[in-house]
Amino acid sequence: MKHFTPLTSLAGGVLIGLAAAALLVLDGRIAGVSGIAGGLLRGRHAGALWRALFLTGLVLGGFLYSVCVPEAFAFTLARSRGALLAAGLLVGFGTQLGDGCTSGHGICGLGRFSPRSLTAVLTFMLSAAITVFIVSRYFGGVL
Amino acid sequence: MNQKMPKATPAHGARFLATAFLSGLLFAFGLALGGMTLPSKIVGFLNFSGGLSGWDPSLGLVMGGALLVYVPTWLWVKRRSHPLFDVRFHVPERHQIDLPLVAGAIIFGVGWGIAGFCPGPAFVSLGALSKPGLLLALGMTGGILGYRLFQRVLNRGAG
């Protein structure tokens, strides 16, 4: 477990929890990134502004963090442009079809003891682990 | 229940909108601090072929840390009638486990396993002007729009 970062990961998780809790307690919304982005891109006009602002915060936060800690965004996997685009397509389509991602199902859904979210989390974890296994075993970790 | 429900949600106030923005900002800091913008850590969590010595449990701790805050918040929220800055909670209430849920999770998992980016870190990395993050976000936008098209075709077929 040489890359394990228990303290910063736990602290990062607590910050994510606080951000999601604030959105629930104050605004009454679920902090699911795919749901928020999907609602915006799928042309739901109601709530377009708060969705856009949440995503702006997310993107701006990434920019500010990268100015201070650029190494937090190091990409060390051997992936072609095509593989990254394809991965993005699958992530975008799959999260819309399955109603959520790691934040919506994994944090907000599990945190509400939702059986749908538990099913989704177990399913995408397994599917992702199988994918990682196939990529490393049969493609030598290069795509 | 004799109170009339408001027909439309009133326009959201400045506090409501500021909360959305600040929540996104804090969410981004949490993801980056937790190491979730490093796809190698995601793949390290999902890779069990190296045995326990090669495994990186960090992602589990990020989820655990978030749940540590979110679970008690939810238990408190459940007893309240409305959030502070809006008239009602917008929380999914479906319980049915159906094919779209499972199929969508499988498809998402494949994409997540290929590149190590889920939607949150993809947006954060886009802000960091990382090229892989940019490509991921571009593909993701295409996937979301593709789903919109898929849904329209389905509706046309059914209607």
The gist of it:
The complex is a heterodimer of chains A (143) and B (159). By secondary structure, chain A is mostly helical.
Task: Return the structural class of chain B.
Answer: mainly alpha
Tally the helices of chain B.
7
The counted number of beta strands of chain B is 0
How would the global form of chain B be characterised? globular
Strand content of chain B: under 5%
Question: Could you explain how this protein is built, in words?
Answer:
- The complex is a heterodimer of chains A (about 140) and B (about 160).
- Chain A is mainly alpha-helical.
- Chain A is about 70% helix and about 0% strand.
- Chain A contains six helices and no strands.
- In chain A, helix 2 packs across helix 3.
- Chain A starts with 5 loop residues before the first helix and ends in a 5-residue tail after the last helix.
- Chain B is mainly α and about 160 residues long.
- In chain B, helix 6 crosses helix 7.
- Chain B is globular.
- In chain B, about 50% of the residues are buried.
- The N terminus of chain B is likely disordered.
- The interface between A and B is large, with 115 and 119 residues.
